Amino acid sequence: MKKIVLDAEERDILESYESGEWVSVKDPKNEIKRLQQYARNTLQKDKRINIRMSSKDLDQVQVIAAQEGIPYQTLVSSIIHKYVSGYLIEKKKA
Fold it and tell me: I need a surface site. Which of 9, 12, 13, 81 has the fewest CB within 10 A?
């Protein structure tokens, strides 16, 4: 039998599951509909903005977006969304 090798993230998920941190959703169909609506509201792009930024910053954003396999505008939009939602956390430099 082949041994399964898990990466760090997969081990964390497995440990979380095995320790009972996961809870079943009472009404999965309604929960899926609710979350889909949240996603639609979040991902709906109905406004445009123009910003001026340094070419160095734009170059770095484009490199990161290329590494993630997404357009750089999508990355910028995601960063702004995470910031206003309180999910963008500053990393402390060593």
Answer: 9
* C-alpha to C-alpha distance for 31 and 23, rounded to whole angstroms: 13
Closest of 87, 61, 58, 89 to residue 75, by C-alpha: 61
**pTM of the prediction?**
0.53
- Residue 89's pLDDT band, with cuts at 50, 70 and 90, is confident
Between the two ends of the chain, the Cα-to-Cα distance in Å is 43
One-character DSSP codes across 2-57: PPP---HHHHHHHHHHHTT-----S-HHHHHHHHHHHHHHHH-----------HHH
- The pLDDT of residue 91 is 80
Cα Dmax for the chain: 57
Which DSSP category does 84 fall into?
H
Q: Cβ distance 77 to 45 under 8 Å?
A: yes
